[in-house]
Known about the structure:
The structure is a homodecamer of 146-residue chains. Chain A is built from six helices and two strands; from the N terminus they run ααααααββ. With 146 residues, chain A is α+β, with helices and mostly antiparallel strands. Chain A folds into two domains: 3-68, 434 Repressor (Amino-terminal Domain); 83-142, Cyanate Lyase, Chain: A, domain 2 (2-Layer Sandwich), CATH 3.30.1160. In chain A, strands 1-2 form a two-stranded antiparallel sheet. Chain A is globular and about 50 Å long. The N and C termini of chain A lie far apart (44 Å). At the A-B interface, helix 3, helix 6, strand 1 and strand 2 of A face helix 3, helix 6, strand 1 and strand 2 of B. Strand 2 of chain C pairs antiparallel with strand 2 (131-142) of chain D.
Amino acid sequence: MTKLEMTEAIMAAKKSSGLSWEAISDKVGLGPVFLTSACLGMNSLKAEPAQKLCDLLGLDGDTALALQEFPNKQWEQIVPTDPLVYRLYEVVGVYGETIKAIVGEKFGDGIMSAIDFSLDIDKEENPAGDRVVITMNGKFLPYKSW
Amino acid sequence: MTKLEMTEAIMAAKKSSGLSWEAISDKVGLGPVFLTSACLGMNSLKAEPAQKLCDLLGLDGDTALALQEFPNKQWEQIVPTDPLVYRLYEVVGVYGETIKAIVGEKFGDGIMSAIDFSLDIDKEENPAGDRVVITMNGKFLPYKSW
Amino acid sequence: MTKLEMTEAIMAAKKSSGLSWEAISDKVGLGPVFLTSACLGMNSLKAEPAQKLCDLLGLDGDTALALQEFPNKQWEQIVPTDPLVYRLYEVVGVYGETIKAIVGEKFGDGIMSAIDFSLDIDKEENPAGDRVVITMNGKFLPYKSW
Amino acid sequence: MTKLEMTEAIMAAKKSSGLSWEAISDKVGLGPVFLTSACLGMNSLKAEPAQKLCDLLGLDGDTALALQEFPNKQWEQIVPTDPLVYRLYEVVGVYGETIKAIVGEKFGDGIMSAIDFSLDIDKEENPAGDRVVITMNGKFLPYKSW
Amino acid sequence: MTKLEMTEAIMAAKKSSGLSWEAISDKVGLGPVFLTSACLGMNSLKAEPAQKLCDLLGLDGDTALALQEFPNKQWEQIVPTDPLVYRLYEVVGVYGETIKAIVGEKFGDGIMSAIDFSLDIDKEENPAGDRVVITMNGKFLPYKSW
Amino acid sequence: MTKLEMTEAIMAAKKSSGLSWEAISDKVGLGPVFLTSACLGMNSLKAEPAQKLCDLLGLDGDTALALQEFPNKQWEQIVPTDPLVYRLYEVVGVYGETIKAIVGEKFGDGIMSAIDFSLDIDKEENPAGDRVVITMNGKFLPYKSW
Amino acid sequence: MTKLEMTEAIMAAKKSSGLSWEAISDKVGLGPVFLTSACLGMNSLKAEPAQKLCDLLGLDGDTALALQEFPNKQWEQIVPTDPLVYRLYEVVGVYGETIKAIVGEKFGDGIMSAIDFSLDIDKEENPAGDRVVITMNGKFLPYKSW
Amino acid sequence: MTKLEMTEAIMAAKKSSGLSWEAISDKVGLGPVFLTSACLGMNSLKAEPAQKLCDLLGLDGDTALALQEFPNKQWEQIVPTDPLVYRLYEVVGVYGETIKAIVGEKFGDGIMSAIDFSLDIDKEENPAGDRVVITMNGKFLPYKSW
Amino acid sequence: MTKLEMTEAIMAAKKSSGLSWEAISDKVGLGPVFLTSACLGMNSLKAEPAQKLCDLLGLDGDTALALQEFPNKQWEQIVPTDPLVYRLYEVVGVYGETIKAIVGEKFGDGIMSAIDFSLDIDKEENPAGDRVVITMNGKFLPYKSW
Amino acid sequence: MTKLEMTEAIMAAKKSSGLSWEAISDKVGLGPVFLTSACLGMNSLKAEPAQKLCDLLGLDGDTALALQEFPNKQWEQIVPTDPLVYRLYEVVGVYGETIKAIVGEKFGDGIMSAIDFSLDIDKEENPAGDRVVITMNGKFLPYKSW
Lengths: 146, 146, 146, 146, 146, 146, 146, 146, 146, 146
């Protein structure tokens, strides 16, 4: 079973179950962003949560194994076209140099890890229109000399 | 005075002053990310903060006018190469589809605005290595039919 | 049922029905551009118009569900080659900077939303050759400081 | 005098004059979008409006001649990055196929000319936020057999 | 029946018939370039010639309908690699600016239409080697002010 | 003197002279397309016409030498953006495969040379709008086996 | 039978036969490079050698016909990645300008034809390591004025 | 002195001297292709031939030093546009897979080195038109297992 | 059997066997990196190790033959997106010019061969986090004059 | 002083000094690869080694400050063309998937850091030709769930 077939199987079972990503992740015991990314083939799960997920959605052991495989993280579009995803790309273009300047002053020369990293999505209710709040939290990795 | 010349003038004056972006933005009364982005030519300032910034750094009125001009937001590298900025691009590639799925479930069909938007950078102290926390806050804009 | 299969089903049923997009959209109660874009997989419909459309064209419930899913808006060609679509791309290239200048003067620093947005297509009869009139109407979104 | 030098001369003179593109175009007797595009080097003016513009802004005859030269319409960014211009590109991507379908039904097989063409920008006041209205008007050009 | 399936059906029937594009177009009453381009899916035919073509080659009504659909004119290779087609691309690169200069002097500021357009291919016999003569004939479209 | 400086010198002298490309080429004894392409740096001239051109326009010997140098034929834009030149690129995309099919039937397997080649531009007067006629004439080069 | 199917049929028959390209081409009476390129779909054969090849390898008449069709010479990778092919691309990049300079001095302004052209591959035995010798032989085509 | 300045100095001195690349290389004692490539900045010379070249052309010691520096071999155009150079690129595209097949049969799995490599250009006189003969000679490098 | 089918067969058999790449390569008598690369279709094996591998994993003779075929080394992504592979690409970008400078000083003008080459991967245990050690070992190939 | 000016100053001083990168780095007390990368603008130095380097080469305080600035790590060529650097890119393409497979088996799902990272270059003497040995040593960063 490829990661692609795994994702299709999970999506179909999820639709039948009527459960949201948040509900599923609560039951599996992982955050919804991480769990969703694993189901979409962009992260791997350990054996236990993989099994829990499959039990919850009535999926077989092949799916549980496919969830544990280490994914090749590939995307097709160098510049994403979906408006929601493009806006994130635009933020990187507009604010990338600024983020580098501020991180440099606060932490020194280095980067924010995208591996020792988490990302959360919250809803901030607001009478002028609700707001999406995305929080990225990555370990600062300083450049070292040798 | 072009935006590019403006940025060079500000960078030189800032280095002479010994002030950090945080210190400057505190005195000007704006957040450090927004203020820095305006100084780097990616946002415009209103007349009052532009003047305050120039007074603080000993810059002339041309710089204050240049800060008020509406910038053409352009970046050269379709895929950024600086490791700090690339990691953000990578996050968009790896988690873009996941963010779309979660936002869809929490808000409906729509996007997070990159215009009615703010971005903050914090330092989370951690004995295992400090962490960079980036918070994006954008208005949810639902697609409408017509 | 994927969006692609949905589009094929709708196109086949539309051809059998002999109805135009305008006639269909009149009966469904939506504008022809929005309705067509949803049928081509670039927008989602609410449950009611999705059902009306399927009733009108004799399509099953799966199609109605597929119409309600939130689409991934993707296009293949970075520069479109079809002459009709390329001319629109050319207009963006030739007049983009001009539109930015005029919108800046009329509204201040900001953009025209492509989400809180509608687009209409009209035919202007003209003895020297009929004319296509495309009207875009998008909310002005001002850049804000923070 | 190159088109680039011409644009710089006009921009400086316009800033000194304090006139808007609308005010200038009213006095010259052309629409503001066309006039602005000519000043930005994307269209040519006839001798009379070119002279009127230069008289109004106190520019010399070289500028008037440069305005009459036929421009090479070139843009650098295949995908524009400025958010205002990108949104227009996005509209072409999202609605291009739809526009082709509707134009096909209303007019037959052909295109909307981008040459025998005009574009206007209006402000629609709205308590929920003003709206940008862009109207494109191009001659329908039918494909012919031979 | 897609345009692709249509082209395959026509190519197979043409091979069986032993007829050349010139012979077919003579019988259908259209020029060989236009007719061939329609059969290759780059133009649409009116009902009558579509039917004539199908009668001539023994093709069914679906093919005749497919020939009448308005094609999406798409090509895969931004720079064509086939030597015959590349040479044409090279001519555009080498002589494009020259053609613009000469057309500008002969006609004023404008373009040659690629829609109100015909293209013919002739063989010029020559003892030093026969020559290909390609004649393009397109309506001059002047830029207009508004 | 580089080819670029040569072109600038010729353009300035041509503007002063008030002569058209056609008038200049008549006096030099070459076709206007070839001569213009040499002046724009895309072909080289023999010593005699180079000298004639310089005498006519009052240009010095360096210009005459520069005209005789063998040019590096380079263009910047893989897809040209100027509408006049883009339309030619579009013709190659839309009709390239068709031209290959017809040339194949008329001549056999081979190409039209872009080197042993000429290109002419004519004006066809027409009450419905004048027409641009571009004629390309290239030697057929058959593929040979070995 | 497409060219792709033809190549697969030939490759399978060649493997069964145990014959090398050199052995096959000797029997067919053509050079091994040309014959191989035709079998890989990059050149066409005349009827006689096509038939000989099919007789030799026990292939049917469809294959012989497919070998005679005029190929669309297309390659997928703009920059080839296979190390053997990339080295050839690298040679063009490193020595292209040099070759132009030397050919210019030896022949005048013009090109080496890639159509009236042959290419041979030899093995030069050498105790320090055998060497690959590639010889290209193309007609010089001078640019002509008109 | 950069490699670019070095090339300009050599080209100017060569033009003054009236010597051809062949004549220069004869006197320096290197092949014309290698010497020209070093002068164009794509190879380095040892001290002795560098000095000989500078003595011959009356160039100073800085030029001799610049000739000895190890060049960064960079080219701007991924697909070359000059017709002479493009034809070589085309040969790689059309015959690359064929060359790989023949080299594989003659030598085994490996490549032709582009470093332990030489390239020569000869003129083959021919009444039907002279021919350019390019000979590449590179060491075969077999892939090894480990 | 294509290389792709070969890889799939090997991956399935390897999973069933429960053997790691290291264990397999030990038994076959080759290094794990080279053996894995051959199984992934990026190198060829000699007959003996190919047979040993197939015996070990219970694969048929077709797989053994496919392993011996000379691969076309192709990759799809010009810039790799998987974070592990991208980091290697980043190292080339950040340190490429530095490596060239150091190799130049230590060895002279030349390159490190990627053909007469080996690559090994080791694990360096470290209480602060284990480390990946990648060692590349390639023959220095000096540029030669001719 | 920009990083570019800094690099030029260092390169000129280094050439005058006659010191190699190895000799300089020995005296400064850093490894040659890291030190060279900092001098080429791809890493920053701490104050002390920056001062030591400038003292050694007789450079002023501005250079020492420029060495301490945090660089924007940018490279121009998406695919490097210099043969030495390209070979490294080729290694990533040919062995990237293999490295991922082996690292996955040895360490689990994660990456080799390019930040907590060192790279060394050694010369391995060999009678069959000396060999370049490049050793990369990066911390393994495991993907974590959250």
